[in-house]
């Protein structure tokens, strides 16, 4: 054989000990295929495998796994569905959309714009995938069933904009506003699907790789949950997620597949665009990503449909009686397939078909052009239609459709199949001319040549038969897609009685703020007007958080119900599952919990029926572990409560480094849609939770699209009753005075949050009795809200507003005066957020560094945030101001043995870790 050619693949070849018997078996299977089809043949093979396993045998490791099929279409040509559309009309306007999508990105690189980027190649390769859906499957909001939920691949957004332009939803001015949202205000288009930036258009943010697949799964689950809970009928809604093969390397992309299979989410279809290349190179150069994904999804319990080849291959495969072509397909790695599409028909003849004399003979009568036009399946709308229809008809499992495409398809040799196509934003005049000719766009050379940066868009005049057909298809399917609506059923919020218990305090007992919150939530769940809309989300820590009390009444959602005998069935707080359960118990799965939170917290928009998610988690495993998902939740305008339980660096006795949370409020402060609170007492939580409901779901706040992040602790303390005349406004805006100074003559102010407030109050007593210091104590419920208000005030003149004093400045001038010391169970940077806006000297204390295992008292002494450390730090501030002698702080530190970790006494031993 020539050195330039390879022998036929032998990856699956074995020595046949009895070829005659093998031939008879193959003949028998051929008979079954002819009479009963592939399904019946698969049934027989499954039974045979069972018999072999019963006899103690195993499948030979030299054969491919039974969960991976040949590298051909799952649906054979004989079973392809009849295509119901007007193929000629669809082909014409698909060309218009392809043209406009590419031109939009190209025009955005005009020198006058500055080159804002964009992606041409992704949509070019996926146009048929999307258009088959738009023309025949994606149901809009006006559909009687409520409409589908479509997660578009982020880099394909130009295609969606281009279609909307042809439909008349967007103008030419909009397309020219691509990636220029502020400079072309009113007509700017965001780069990717960003609901917050285009709130009437995009529903789901997807361009943060891996979050789209995960959120789509939980959206499908949420749809079923709404149905099971009797809130709305979602039985005729489908969730579509369009993904990339490179994206499937993200752990989040694959990590939730078992949920979809376990829940039997046949209302969900993944469509994976397998163009075989990442941004920089092949996804699997030496292997086959479609085969890998087929095995992965089928092993996870999904229905798998492969669309590998277009109809042009059907005749070749039908004549491939000895499987030479199939074996060649099976053995050719993706890296080679990519090379073929960047070359020519002659190259494919020599380097693919020419590797085996039998396959070479199959195409001996084909011209090089015919070979070049052997399309991949993702560019054949008939093959795509058959796959979509099969997915919609399948029951009991989610479906994944693996679609083979060429990145940059039809963009010409400079783009098509090239590794650099993802980074290519501009086209030469020759590229544009060839692209126009290929698509048959009626634009003249003169128009094209006027300005190479401004090739014209194309949309036909109203009345065009193709355009009318296109619009009729969308009307028949329920209107425009994508579209987001935010009108929803108004709900009655809990009245004041739901918060009374929390405001009464804990009396003679002690209670952690975690328990105080659990009691508030219990009362809200009991509310007859809206309690059924609350969605508690717990990642396998309900008993730690005191929320196991909800199990017997609210029950845990499981679409399969509770069919086993529970080990704790006789206990009062037995673990109970139900097909109509209210609690989403996601297991040890923080990423999945945020996805569930997002789906529930956007039901007001996706379904017009509000759900109020309450996601309670181990605080360290929230914003640190899943911050990207919370950012996407903010983009999707999710509303709900996020509760970081077991909060703080030192409250978790004995837990250690990875559990000691000293920075979550700081991480949360970076998300503009998160309203963060670090409450000390149950009555503060009551005001905050009530205000959160009113802001998010009361219908009157100008910015309801926020998430409330509440930190709660597991350390029991004496919960005071709400004081008469409490400063409710201060609680909500970020600080209120909980203990005015009553003794001492030297003024100072101590600011504390969360579990540190009782330490500050004890320090106040010591300062007065031992050092004649009169210190006001403030409970800072939100350092970040104080900072946001202060920044808004600080920037007022820059933004043309009237200058004003920050709230934190205003409040501190109302106090006794003197320097300010700020402390919490978090790193100093949390407290330091307000430092520039404090009019007095400002010093802080914080738990900087890694956590460790020890008692609360020892940990707090180590970090110098305990009672005695607050006293010394206050004296230090006073000494710097000249209010006390310079040697006083050092004397106090020695007196309190600050260098001795064993001398710490702040905190108790109660509470679960």
Automatic annotation (TrEMBL):
Q: Which cofactors?
A: Mg(2+); thiamine diphosphate
Report the residue ranges that make up the Transketolase N-terminal domain in this protein.
Answer: 124-312
Give the source's domain of life in one word: Bacteria
Alphabetic keyword roster: ATP-binding, Magnesium, Metal-binding, Nucleotide-binding, Oxidoreductase, Pyruvate, Thiamine pyrophosphate
Enumerate the residues binding Mg(2+): 245, 275, 277
The record's function comment reads: Component of the pyruvate dehydrogenase (PDH) complex, that catalyzes the overall conversion of pyruvate to acetyl-CoA and CO(2).
> This chain belongs to which protein, by name?
Pyruvate dehydrogenase E1 component
Q: Native species of this protein?
A: Leucobacter tardus
Q: Which lineage is the organism of this entry classified under, starting from the top rank?
A: Bacteria, Bacillati, Actinomycetota, Actinomycetes, Micrococcales
Gene name per UniProt:
aceE
